[in-house]
Structures are given as structure tokens and as C-alpha cells.
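Subject: Transposase structure
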Amino acid sequence: MIDGILHRVRTGVHWRDLPERFGPWKTVYERHRLWSADGTWERLLQQVQAAADAAGDIDWDISVDSTIVRAHQHAAGARTGPPPALTDSKGDEALEHQDETPWQSLVGRLVEVVQEARAWVVHAAASPARST
């Protein structure tokens, strides 16, 4: 039973693909599930660690080599100070709408886009037709 569970953990095969030599896959699965739920695996690990520690087989010192700890690609070149001050007219507009919710800002921007589109249509209609 334990060999079947260890084989599954070691190889990563699906429970249903466990070789027949370990017995019915469902029995192996159920035993593993029950032992995981009732803490049998944790107790077993603690006992093995205690026995190995008493025998001096475990070195509890930890050494971390920072060369193997990689930063995420987006971590490179991040700002270290505050963002640059906005100096154009949009900056004043941003301060004006600072207390708006994102939804209100979106609706406001959509209104602006519609107004710009209408102005463009009026301008295009007033322009003389071009022929090539």
C-alpha cells in the first residue's frame, strides 16, 4: 500500500494508472486520503525526523544562496521614488477628478469621446467632398 502511494507521488501518474502490482488503485487512493486527513503522514514524518536527528543524520543548518533566488521580470527597473509631477493641463484635470470613483471617471471619459466623435462628424460633414 505504501509503495503504491510513494510510486504515485514519485511519478505523478493518475491514481487510475497505478500499476496493478500495488493493488486496486481505489484502495490505494482511499488509504492515502484517509491517512492524509487523520494526520498519519505528519506523525510518520515527525517520528522519522526525530529518529534521524537523534542519530545525528540531520544537519539543521540552512544555507541560502541568493544567486538562485530570482526576481520576477517586472521587478527590474521599478521606480524608487514618487512618480514625476504632472505639469500639463491633464494634471490639473486629474486633480479635479481625484475624488471620483473609477466608474465615474470612465463614464466621464466616454462622454468626452462621444463629444469628440460628434464634433469630428460635424466637421467632416461641413468639409467639401474630395474626388480623386
